[in-house]
Amino acid sequence: MPESNSTDRHFGNHDGDRPTQDARPAQNIAVLGATGSIGTATVDVINHLNVVDPQNRWCMRSASGHRNLNCLTQMAQSVQDAPAHLILSDAQAAADYCPPPELANAKVSVGAEALVEAAIDPAIDIVVAAIVGRAGLESTLAAFEHGKRVALANKETLVVAGPLVRERIEKSGAEMLPVDSEHSAIFQCMGTCSSKPKRLILTASGGPFRTWSTDQMDAATPESALAHPTWEMGPKITIDSATMMNKSLEVIEARWLFDLPADKIEVVVHPQSIIHSMVEFEDGSVIAQLSPPDMRLPIQYALTYPRRLPCQSPPLDRTQTWDLSLEPVDRERFPALDLGFEVARVGGTAGSVVNAANEQAVGLFLNGEIRFTDIVQTCRRVLENHSYQSDPSLETLLELDRWARKETLRCCGQIA
Ligand SMILES: NC(=O)c1ccc[n+]([C@@H]2O[C@H](COP(=O)([O-])OP(=O)(O)OC[C@H]3O[C@@H](n4cnc5c(N)ncnc54)[C@H](OP(=O)(O)O)[C@@H]3O)[C@@H](O)[C@H]2O)c1
């Protein structure tokens, strides 16, 4: 991990480490990406747990925001115990930030390196990895290296560096608890049986373009791609859902999370987003996990595992007729799926390259620079243009991430 050179700013008396009078065991949580869709839902869950689990003190001890620092303030003000540490990962946005008086005792750290500091803080029990994209990699890896329980939303860490994550967990004894609803579902289904699964079946909503032709998708606007039919999420994952690159990233995530080869993973389309995924066992039994599409359930389970506590997510409405359909993915209209399976099969540097190309291409699409269907085609081209290595170091993966972003710009005619 890089040596820390983050900047700390001190406002007030900075008594975050003062022993508390409260004798209840504390669950000290670092929410990295507290201002995002998963981050704000996590804050909601923490507040809820303090109601339904009063024998523990659920505490957001540290919280990070990047650009949306008003939201960081709101999150920090909404919890029972004010965070002892605020991380402002974007130095430019941090320049004008001044915490309100009730947060004056918090330590404030600025810069990306401060995310690593927060992740390895000995006072932290659980790290919620909720930063979007490759930006969450170093802090998530650091949390694994330091033996934390990691509630993992940042799937990109496993996509880029799955084997390095597994290595760190083996050495440190860290716990990896999935937050992605599909992987949480599989994790819950596997808990019902001690045998290795025969197959994992990931469900996909199909996104907003499930029934669109390729010609229609060619002309898709950012607004239409951002209108997800069942989930409210941040913009990057919402576009990934529309291209089905999100499902590809999830196939790669599942490959490393559950240490199963790609040919034991399948994807089916389930537009209602009620069955979150399934596991098939050797005897042919298929176990599924069902709940309404609400991320507070998998987030809470990752925090409280192995305990199950009442959740804010509403129960399934059993007074209505259930319409639960499963259909195969049309891989011609959604070529991202083949790409994801290929990356899951070959591993090595492929994940880092495809992830970076996708992040860059999604940005270009949102800025109106490329067509919707160019996103996946560009990822394929960039993957094919790179020099594959089977057992790369972290430095090589980061170097290739930088290369793939530039190569994406080149392939899209943005630079010479
Ligand atoms: N949303 C979901 O339902 C869902 C479901 C499953 C998995 N996930 C995964 O969870 C992760 C977060 O997704 P999301 O939907 O919550 O995204 P989001 O709403 O866009 O939030 C992203 C978070 O990351 C922060 N951030 C952005 N760029 C950053 C950078 N360069 N350095 C540090 N922090 C940065 C943002 O800060 P600011 O807002 O302050 O700029 C925000 O806190 C993704 O990996 C996604 O795939 C999300």
From TrEMBL:
The UniProt keywords, alphabetically, are: Isomerase, Isoprene biosynthesis, Magnesium, Manganese, Metal-binding, NADP, Oxidoreductase
- Residue numbers binding Mn(2+): 180, 182, 250
* Example of a GO biological process term: isopentenyl diphosphate biosynthetic process, methylerythritol 4-phosphate pathway involved in terpenoid biosynthetic process
Start and end residues of each DXP reductoisomerase C-terminal domain? 290-406
The cofactor named in the record is: Mg(2+); Mn(2+)
1-deoxy-D-xylulose 5-phosphate reductoisomerase N-terminal domain sequence ranges:
29-162
Identify the pathway. Answer: Isoprenoid biosynthesis; isopentenyl diphosphate biosynthesis via DXP pathway; isopentenyl diphosphate from 1-deoxy-D-xylulose 5-phosphate: step 1/6
| Basic and acidic residues bias (residue ranges) | 1-21
Annotated residues that bind NADPH are located at: 35-38, 67-68, 154, 156, 234
Q: Which residues form the signal peptide?
A: none
Q: Which reaction does it catalyse?
A: 2-C-methyl-D-erythritol 4-phosphate + NADP(+) = 1-deoxy-D-xylulose 5-phosphate + NADPH + H(+)
Report the HAMAP family cross-referenced here.
DXP_reductoisom
Q: What does this protein do?
A: Catalyzes the NADPH-dependent rearrangement and reduction of 1-deoxy-D-xylulose-5-phosphate (DXP) to 2-C-methyl-D-erythritol 4-phosphate (MEP).
> What name is this protein filed under?
1-deoxy-D-xylulose 5-phosphate reductoisomerase
Q: Which organism is it from?
A: Stieleria marina
Supply the gene name: dxr
